[in-house]
Structures are given as structure tokens and as C-alpha cells.
UniProtKB/TrEMBL annotation:
Residues 268-382 form the NlpC/P60 domain. The keyword Mitochondrion does not apply. It comes from the Bacteria. Belongs to the peptidase C40 family. Keywords: Coiled coil, Hydrolase, Protease, Thiol protease. Residues 1-28, 249-271 are annotated as: Disordered. This is Cell wall-associated hydrolase, NlpC family. Residues 81-111 form a coiled coil.
């Protein structure tokens, strides 16, 4: 064998160590076709690699984000489902915020009605007090005129000195007693009328201020409700888009009712009735703002279930979280309401064995689930 020769450079120039040119080595290269093919393939691969690295990324944004692409139907819970549930929790919070604002508006409208009634009552009291004041002032002025303007001294000493007999003194004394009683009554009536007039004026002023405050608060809440309605609309639109990315298995998991309920009796008949009512709705769809009997949101299910037991709960989960008596997690019993997130935006009903029945969120159904993360407290309402 001859001495191994150095491969030529790509441009046919002499190698740095003075080796042969491409022309000089052509015969040798032709005698090794396999080596030539392999070398060509490696060179082409190198060129493609260089082009790929140098290619600008202008078209990178044309492809959708991986988080927005439908996952393969693998038969297991997916990232798309996790994202859907996260968006659903946000939408549920927006829904509960809206319900709370509507509850507040109803309360403020009640305050306004009460304040307006107070204004009207104050006006009636003021008119009556003014009439009484006028009446008693006339009587008081009459006694003052008789006593001072005419110079008559209305007392028993005057009657004794002016009388001519015991009988006349007694008659005059009796008359003076009557007059004095009437005078005292007139003075007392006048004083009472003046006080009532002042109280009526203060009531009218206070009621008018309360009415103004309630009206302003109601107007602000009305605007707040509009904003919350828009927020809920935006959240539900995002949720609807994300639902399209769910696999068949993801959607199937949304319809799972969670298996059998724990066989744990409630501590009382009303709590048991509420538990039975809630469990009777397993599989019913979640719908924003629904209160039954065939569709529910989380707080609507609790309200409907306890209504069947004769107990009226507030509408929103946030208001329900202040109803009844607080219960520690270690003391939970079937029928207790369990709450999630801060501020509260989800509620379920405890069943025992660490499980609850609840209406989870849009796209889901009333189901039995373990107690979840973000647990913040519980209330006993029966």
C-alpha cells in the first residue's frame, strides 16, 4: 500500500501541509466510490445543518402555542383538562362575585326603601307635632295672659284674701286647682310637642341621608354588576374555547358522578333531608346562576337542597359562608357546608369519610368528590 494521502479542500487548492491538489487525487477518489458517497452525504448534512441554524425564526409564531393545541386522546387526564378546570375555577369566582354584588344591591335597595319610609314617617310625625305645638301654645298663652296681663294672681293666698267666706274660698281653691292642672297639662303638652317636632326633624334628616347613601351605593353596585357580568362573559368565552381542546376521555371524566356516597348518617333530620336532596341530583349539569331543580351552580345546589329541608340559605357561596355556625374541619358532619378559596367562591356539602357532594363547574355535573385543596372553612346550618 502507498502512503495515505490527505483529502483535498473544497476549492481545489493545495492543503496547508503541501499535499496534492484535487486534480492530483482525482484518480484515488474515483477508486473509492463508497468513500465518495459517504463524504458527500456528510458534507450535505453539514450544509443542511448550517442552513437550519442560520434560518430566521420569522415563521415560528405561525404555529399555535402548544398549550392551545388539542391533546391526543390518551384516555387519561390531560394538560388541557387541567387548564380547563383552572379557567372554570376563575369563571366560577366571577359568577360568585356577580351573585354577591346582586345580593348587596338587593340589600341596598332594601335600605333605600327603609330610609324612604323613614322620611315619610318623619314628615307625618313632624306635621302632627306641629299641630300639637300650635294647640298647646294657644292654651299656654291663654294662661299667661290671664295671669300677667290682667293682673290676676292665680294662687290660693289670693283666693283667701279676696274671699268673703270659707265656702267661697273652697270654691275658688277648687277652681284654681283645676286651672293649675290644666295649665300644667298645657305646658307639658307644649314641651312634649316641641320635643317630638325636634325628633321628627332629626329623623327626617337622618333618613334623608341614609336614603342618599343607599341610592349612591346602589348606583355604584349597579355599575359593579355590569363589570362583573362582563368579566363572567369573558371567562366563559375562554372556557368554551378551551373545552374544544379536551379529549374524549377528558370530557368523559367531567361526567363522572364520583361513585357511591359514604354510608354516614347526618346528625339531624334536616341535615339528612338536605344530604338526600343534594345526592338526588347527581349527574345534573352545572349551569352558571342556576338554582334547580335540574341545573345548578355550586351555591344554587346548596340553596336548593336545604330548601327541601325547610331552611333558606343566602344565594351566593360567600354569603352562605357567614350563615349558621362555624365548624372546625375535625368536627365535620354530614350536611355541613364546606367552602373553598379566599374570598370564598365555591361550596359543597360534606357527606362523611372526607367526601362531599357539589356542583363543580361548567361542563361538569353534580358529583361526589374528596374534600379539595384551598379549603377555608365550614358552617353548620341545621
Amino acid at each position: 500500500m502507498g502512503v495515505r494521502k490527505r483529502a483535498p479542500d473544497l476549492f481545489g487548492a493545495k492543503a496547508p501541509d503541501g499535499g496534492p491538489t484535487a486534480k492530483e487525487t482525482r484518480a484515488t477518489v474515483q477508486s473509492h466510490p463508497v468513500k465518495r458517497v459517504v463524504s458527500g452525504a456528510l458534507a450535505a448534512a453539514s450544509v443542511f445543518a448550517i442552513v437550519a441554524v442560520a434560518q430566521p425564526a420569522a415563521t415560528a409564531n405561525a404555529a399555535p402555542s402548544p398549550s392551545l393545541q388539542a391533546p391526543p386522546d390518551t384516555g387519561s387526564s390531560s394538560d388541557a383538562l387541567a387548564k380547563y378546570r383552572d379557567l372554570a375555577a376563575q369563571a366560577e369566582k366571577a359568577n360568585e362575585d356577580l351573585l354577591k354584588a346582586q345580593d348587596d344591591l338587593t340589600a341596598k335597595q332594601g335600605d333605600l326603601d327603609k330610609a324612604n319610609a323613614g322620611v315619610n314617617a318623619a314628615k307625618d310625625q313632624a306635621a302632627q307635632a306641629a299641630g300639637n305645638e300650635k294647640k298647646y301654645r294657644v292654651d299656654v298663652d291663654k294662661f299667661a295672659g290671664a295671669s300677667f296681663l290682667s293682673g290676676v294672681q292665680m294662687n290660693k293666698l289670693s283666693a283667701l284674701l279676696a274671699g268673703t267666706s270659707t265656702q267661697e274660698f273652697l270654691e275658688r281653691s277648687s277652681a284654681l286647682d283645676q286651672i293649675a292642672a290644666e295649665k300644667d297639662a298645657a305646658l307639658s303638652g307644649l314641651s312634649d310637642a316641641v320635643q317630638k317636632a325636634a325628633a321628627a326633624e332629626k329623623l327626617a334628616t337622618d333618613s334623608a341621608k341614609k336614603a342618599t347613601d343607599a341610592r349612591d351605593a346602589a348606583a355604584k353596585l349597579t355599575e359593579d354588576i355590569k363589570a362583573k357580568q362582563q368579566s363572567l362573559k369573558d371567562q366563559t368565552e375562554a372556557l368554551t374555547k378551551q373545552y374544544g381542546f379536551l379529549s374524549k376521555s377528558d370530557k368523559a371524566s367531567q361526567g363522572d358522578t364520583g361513585g357511591a356516597a359514604p354510608n354516614v348518617p347526618a346528625p339531624g333530620p334536616q341535615a339528612q333531608q338536605a344530604v338526600n336532596a343534594a345526592l338526588s341530583k347527581l349527574g345534573s349539569p352545572y349551569v352558571w346562576g342556576a338554582t334547580g331543580p335540574s341545573q345548578f351552580d355550586c351555591s344554587g345546589l346548596m340553596q336548593w337542597a336545604y330548601k327541601q329541608a325547610g331552611i333558606t340559605l343566602p344565594r351566593s357561596s360567600r354569603e352562605q359562608s357567614t350563615f349558621g355556625t362555624a365548624v372546625s374541619r375535625s368536627q365535620l358532619q354530614p350536611g355541613d357546608l364546606v367552602f373553598y378559596y379566599t374570598p370564598v367562591s365555591h361550596v359543597g356539602m360534606y357527606l362523611g369519610d372526607g367526601k362531599m357532594v357539589h356542583a363543580p363547574t361548567s361542563g361538569d355535573v353534580v358529583k361526589i368528590s374528596p374534600l379539595q385543596n384551598n379549603y377555608v372553612g365550614a358552617r353548620r346550618v341545621s
